Structures are given as structure tokens and as C-alpha cells.
Amino acid sequence: MTTNDYPSAALRNEISGVARFRAIVGPDGRVSDCEVIETSGSNVLDAATCRLIVRRARFNPALDEGGNPTSGYYTTNVRWMIPLDLPPEPGTSTQSYVVGPDGTLSNCRVKETDGVESSGTSACPAEIMDGSFKDSAGKPVSRRVLVKYQVTLANAPTGTDARPPAPRTWRGTNTLSIAGTRVTEVIVETDGKVSDCRIVKLTGPIAAQVELGTNDCPKRYERGYAAANGELVPTLVRMTETTVIAPVDKRR
After folding, report:
1. pLDDT tens digits for range 46-63
2. In what residue span(s) does the TonB C-terminal domain sit (predicted)?
3. Prediction pTM value
4. Which pLDDT does position 18 carry in this prediction?
5. How many angstroms separate the first and last alpha carbons of the chain?
6. What is the domain extent for residue 106?
7. CATH code of the domain containing 34
């Protein structure tokens, strides 16, 4: 299991816990059944635990007295912990990927400011999107998504310049991208806590579907920012995200 497997509902409500389960393993080494024997305290996390174990776990089966494969069981824990992201680094990067008619992702590429390209799910959105792009007739089609990110850092406002926090709004990680530009300002405290986050500018089609002032940031990052002298300082992070959606070039 990875952080990508964390159930959206549990992330949204910041629910964590430890689920202890017993898996019934068949002679073929596959899990035929799974039961949570000590709850994590969340039905959502318990259900995700067994669903993923049944789908993915493979074992060397138990052996009977004659040395032949037989049914057995396996018991252990899964600890669900809210993942903490690293704070955004200043600079620019460009990400591109293709969303297929069934919502699956492919051809993910990320180019950093130094021109080095990398690919893989760690830099990509969720493996399957919640829906797909459609043509003018309503038929699902493939589309290439190109997203340019720019991050700048500045001293966080203090005193009378400080803003009251905006209410948090959940944005799922597997929702389809919307063309346009959004600018988000985030105040990150020295311990990584996000004391304020809000969308301050919207242009293009996204402006008709997203509200200004929306706070869809995590509550905290893994750490804060340090000044040139190494001292941790409250920091204003300005993130500009420009998304372009285009037909897939069959020649590429």
C-alpha cells in the first residue's frame, strides 16, 4: 500500500488509525477472504484495508502434513497515517500526461527548471481519473493535459496585514483538470503548519467552476522554510498553475 491508496473520505476528514486484519490464504497463495479483527476506528479505513489486501496480496501457501499446499491465514496490521507533503520548492516545472477515454493516465512527464525529465506515478496524478473528457457529441475521448507550475517565496505578512484563515474546501486528487490559470497564496509557519491558504486569482474556463478564496491546501507540510541564515521563518508561498487541455497528437 502507498499514500495513493489513502481513501479520499478519510483524507478529507483527516482520519487515521491502525487496522488489524486476518487474511484467509488459499492453496494458490491468493487471499480468498479478509476480516478486520481490530478496527482502526474508521469503517472507511477498515474497508480499504481488506479491499486492497484481497486485490493485491500474494503468499507462499501453507503446507499440510504431506507437504501439499493448503488453506491458511495471515494476520498483521496496517497503519493509516495522514501523509505530509514537502512544502513547494521555488521555481518552475511543467507536467504533461494523457487521460484516456476510460479515465486512465499514461505518458506522464515532468520537466523541472534544469531541464531534467522524469516519469512515474510519484510525479503524476492518481492512476485513474474520476470521469473522462468528452467531445462535442458527448463521447469520451483522449486528451493531453499540460500544466505549468511556478512557485515564488516571500516574507509572510504580519500584524495588521495578516489575513483571517479561509475555510477549507476539499479537492479530490483524481478529478479532471480544468483549463485556465489559478494563483494560490499560502502562508506556511515555521513548523510547516498552513495558517492561511486561498485562491487569489482565476482566469480562463476554470474561473467559471472554481471560487475565489477557496482553501484546498493541506493543514500542514512536513516542515517549514528556512532563511539564508538557516533560521526558520513564516513564509508566503505564491503558486501559479496554468493548465492547457488539447487533443492527443497521434504522431507523438
Report:
1. 999 999 999 999 999 999
2. 1-95
3. 0.70
4. 96
5. 33
6. 91-247
7. 3.30.2420.10
